[in-house]
Design goal:
Layout (H helix, E strand, L loop, with lengths): L5 H58 L7 E7 L7 H5 L1 H23 L14 E8 L1 H10 L6 H14 L3 E5 L6 H7 L8 E5 L1
Parallel strand pairs: 1-2, 1-4, 2-3
Helix pairs in contact: 1-5, 3-5, 4-5
Protein backbone atom coordinates (compact mmCIF):
# COMPACT_ATOMS: atom_id res chain seq x y z
CA UNK A 1 0.00 0.00 0.00
CA UNK A 2 1.08 3.59 -0.63
CA UNK A 3 1.97 5.79 2.26
CA UNK A 4 0.59 9.28 2.61
CA UNK A 5 4.01 10.68 1.69
CA UNK A 6 4.32 8.80 -1.62
CA UNK A 7 2.19 11.25 -3.73
CA UNK A 8 4.43 14.10 -2.65
CA UNK A 9 7.46 11.98 -3.50
CA UNK A 10 6.09 11.25 -6.98
CA UNK A 11 5.36 14.92 -7.50
CA UNK A 12 8.93 15.84 -6.59
CA UNK A 13 10.29 13.17 -8.96
CA UNK A 14 8.02 14.48 -11.73
CA UNK A 15 9.29 18.01 -11.21
CA UNK A 16 12.85 16.72 -11.23
CA UNK A 17 12.28 14.86 -14.50
CA UNK A 18 10.72 17.94 -16.07
CA UNK A 19 13.64 20.11 -15.01
CA UNK A 20 16.06 17.58 -16.46
CA UNK A 21 14.09 17.46 -19.72
CA UNK A 22 14.19 21.23 -19.97
CA UNK A 23 17.95 21.24 -19.46
CA UNK A 24 18.35 18.56 -22.13
CA UNK A 25 16.24 20.60 -24.56
CA UNK A 26 18.27 23.73 -23.82
CA UNK A 27 21.49 21.79 -24.41
CA UNK A 28 20.19 20.36 -27.70
CA UNK A 29 19.10 23.84 -28.83
CA UNK A 30 22.54 25.19 -27.98
CA UNK A 31 24.13 22.45 -30.09
CA UNK A 32 21.79 23.22 -32.99
CA UNK A 33 22.57 26.93 -32.79
CA UNK A 34 26.31 26.25 -32.75
CA UNK A 35 25.95 23.88 -35.69
CA UNK A 36 24.08 26.52 -37.68
CA UNK A 37 26.74 29.11 -36.86
CA UNK A 38 29.53 26.73 -37.90
CA UNK A 39 27.70 25.86 -41.12
CA UNK A 40 27.46 29.55 -42.03
CA UNK A 41 31.17 30.05 -41.33
CA UNK A 42 32.02 27.00 -43.45
CA UNK A 43 30.02 28.45 -46.33
CA UNK A 44 32.03 31.66 -46.09
CA UNK A 45 35.33 29.79 -46.02
CA UNK A 46 34.35 27.46 -48.89
CA UNK A 47 33.23 30.40 -51.00
CA UNK A 48 36.41 32.34 -50.25
CA UNK A 49 38.60 29.32 -51.06
CA UNK A 50 36.80 28.75 -54.35
CA UNK A 51 37.20 32.39 -55.33
CA UNK A 52 40.85 32.53 -54.28
CA UNK A 53 41.70 29.39 -56.27
CA UNK A 54 39.87 30.75 -59.30
CA UNK A 55 41.55 34.13 -58.95
CA UNK A 56 45.02 32.58 -58.58
CA UNK A 57 44.49 30.44 -61.66
CA UNK A 58 43.38 33.43 -63.68
CA UNK A 59 46.24 35.57 -62.46
CA UNK A 60 48.74 32.89 -63.48
CA UNK A 61 47.20 32.80 -66.94
CA UNK A 62 47.25 36.57 -67.26
CA UNK A 63 50.87 36.74 -66.11
CA UNK A 64 51.89 34.80 -69.21
CA UNK A 65 49.61 36.72 -71.57
CA UNK A 66 51.06 38.62 -74.52
CA UNK A 67 51.09 42.42 -74.63
CA UNK A 68 48.76 42.35 -77.64
CA UNK A 69 46.01 40.94 -75.43
CA UNK A 70 45.45 43.81 -72.92
CA UNK A 71 42.72 44.22 -70.35
CA UNK A 72 41.35 46.84 -67.99
CA UNK A 73 41.31 46.12 -64.27
CA UNK A 74 38.57 47.45 -61.98
CA UNK A 75 39.17 47.20 -58.23
CA UNK A 76 36.15 47.84 -56.00
CA UNK A 77 36.01 48.41 -52.25
CA UNK A 78 32.81 46.50 -51.56
CA UNK A 79 32.61 47.83 -48.00
CA UNK A 80 32.00 51.38 -49.23
CA UNK A 81 30.46 50.95 -52.68
CA UNK A 82 27.29 48.93 -52.11
CA UNK A 83 25.35 47.35 -54.96
CA UNK A 84 21.69 48.13 -55.62
CA UNK A 85 19.52 46.77 -52.80
CA UNK A 86 17.13 45.00 -55.18
CA UNK A 87 20.03 43.10 -56.72
CA UNK A 88 21.34 42.20 -53.27
CA UNK A 89 17.95 40.83 -52.28
CA UNK A 90 17.84 38.70 -55.45
CA UNK A 91 20.72 36.50 -54.26
CA UNK A 92 22.72 34.64 -56.93
CA UNK A 93 20.57 35.96 -59.78
CA UNK A 94 21.05 39.49 -58.49
CA UNK A 95 24.81 38.94 -58.34
CA UNK A 96 24.91 37.73 -61.95
CA UNK A 97 22.82 40.72 -63.06
CA UNK A 98 25.08 43.10 -61.11
CA UNK A 99 28.10 41.64 -62.93
CA UNK A 100 26.40 42.10 -66.31
CA UNK A 101 25.43 45.70 -65.59
CA UNK A 102 28.89 46.55 -64.26
CA UNK A 103 30.52 45.05 -67.37
CA UNK A 104 28.30 47.16 -69.60
CA UNK A 105 29.12 50.28 -67.60
CA UNK A 106 32.88 49.67 -67.76
CA UNK A 107 32.74 49.00 -71.52
CA UNK A 108 30.80 52.22 -72.03
CA UNK A 109 33.45 54.12 -70.07
CA UNK A 110 36.22 52.49 -72.11
CA UNK A 111 34.51 53.44 -75.36
CA UNK A 112 34.44 57.06 -74.20
CA UNK A 113 38.21 56.91 -73.58
CA UNK A 114 38.90 55.67 -77.11
CA UNK A 115 38.50 58.98 -78.94
CA UNK A 116 40.29 57.74 -82.05
CA UNK A 117 43.11 60.25 -81.52
CA UNK A 118 45.08 59.28 -78.42
CA UNK A 119 47.28 56.20 -78.89
CA UNK A 120 47.07 55.43 -75.17
CA UNK A 121 43.51 54.11 -75.46
CA UNK A 122 43.67 52.96 -79.07
CA UNK A 123 41.66 49.80 -79.49
CA UNK A 124 40.24 50.14 -75.97
CA UNK A 125 36.89 48.77 -77.08
CA UNK A 126 38.58 45.39 -77.56
CA UNK A 127 40.12 45.22 -74.09
CA UNK A 128 38.93 42.54 -71.74
CA UNK A 129 37.50 43.61 -68.39
CA UNK A 130 38.70 42.12 -65.09
CA UNK A 131 36.88 43.08 -61.89
CA UNK A 132 37.84 42.37 -58.29
CA UNK A 133 35.41 43.35 -55.52
CA UNK A 134 36.85 43.07 -52.00
CA UNK A 135 34.66 43.25 -48.90
CA UNK A 136 34.44 42.18 -45.29
CA UNK A 137 31.65 39.62 -45.68
CA UNK A 138 30.91 39.45 -41.95
CA UNK A 139 30.77 43.19 -41.40
CA UNK A 140 28.98 43.94 -44.67
CA UNK A 141 26.38 41.24 -43.99
CA UNK A 142 25.67 42.69 -40.56
CA UNK A 143 25.25 46.19 -42.05
CA UNK A 144 22.95 44.89 -44.78
CA UNK A 145 20.86 42.95 -42.26
CA UNK A 146 20.42 46.07 -40.14
CA UNK A 147 19.28 47.92 -43.25
CA UNK A 148 16.79 45.17 -44.05
CA UNK A 149 18.55 43.90 -47.19
CA UNK A 150 18.64 40.24 -46.21
CA UNK A 151 17.95 37.54 -43.66
CA UNK A 152 21.42 36.09 -43.06
CA UNK A 153 25.06 36.15 -44.21
CA UNK A 154 24.11 33.46 -46.70
CA UNK A 155 22.28 36.09 -48.76
CA UNK A 156 25.53 37.98 -49.37
CA UNK A 157 27.37 34.72 -50.07
CA UNK A 158 24.80 33.82 -52.73
CA UNK A 159 25.04 37.30 -54.26
CA UNK A 160 28.85 37.13 -54.32
CA UNK A 161 28.75 33.66 -55.87
CA UNK A 162 26.38 34.81 -58.59
CA UNK A 163 28.56 37.85 -59.26
CA UNK A 164 31.69 35.70 -59.54
CA UNK A 165 30.05 33.15 -61.84
CA UNK A 166 28.31 35.85 -63.87
CA UNK A 167 31.43 36.89 -65.80
CA UNK A 168 34.61 34.85 -66.39
CA UNK A 169 36.97 37.58 -65.14
CA UNK A 170 34.86 38.83 -62.24
CA UNK A 171 35.43 37.96 -58.57
CA UNK A 172 33.73 39.02 -55.33
CA UNK A 173 36.26 38.24 -52.60
CA UNK A 174 35.97 38.14 -48.80
CA UNK A 175 38.83 40.36 -47.58
CA UNK A 176 38.49 39.17 -43.97
CA UNK A 177 37.34 40.89 -40.81
CA UNK A 178 40.39 43.06 -40.18
CA UNK A 179 39.85 46.82 -40.35
CA UNK A 180 40.44 48.23 -43.85
CA UNK A 181 40.98 44.71 -45.18
CA UNK A 182 39.40 45.56 -48.53
CA UNK A 183 41.50 48.71 -48.85
CA UNK A 184 44.64 46.69 -48.09
CA UNK A 185 43.83 44.24 -50.89
CA UNK A 186 43.16 47.01 -53.38
CA UNK A 187 46.40 48.82 -52.53
CA UNK A 188 48.41 45.62 -52.85
CA UNK A 189 51.16 45.32 -55.44
CA UNK A 190 49.71 43.77 -58.58
CA UNK A 191 52.16 41.94 -60.88
CA UNK A 192 53.93 44.40 -63.15
CA UNK A 193 54.11 41.82 -65.94
CA UNK A 194 50.37 42.06 -66.59
CA UNK A 195 49.43 43.63 -69.94
CA UNK A 196 47.03 45.89 -68.06
CA UNK A 197 46.35 49.06 -70.01
CA UNK A 198 44.16 50.81 -67.44
CA UNK A 199 43.25 50.44 -63.79
CA UNK A 200 39.94 51.74 -62.50
CA UNK A 201 39.32 51.86 -58.77
Amino acid sequence: MFSHDEPDSFQLQLMTFRAQDEKRLEFIQTLLDERQSLSAKCLVLDNDLEIQVKARRELQIKASAQENNPFVLLLVDGDHYIFDQQLLKAGAEGGAEAARLLLESVKTHIQELDDGVSSVYAGATQWRVMVRVYANFTGLSAALLRAGFGKSINDLIKFAGGFTRGQPLFDFVDAGTEKEGADHKIRGDWPKTFPCEASLG
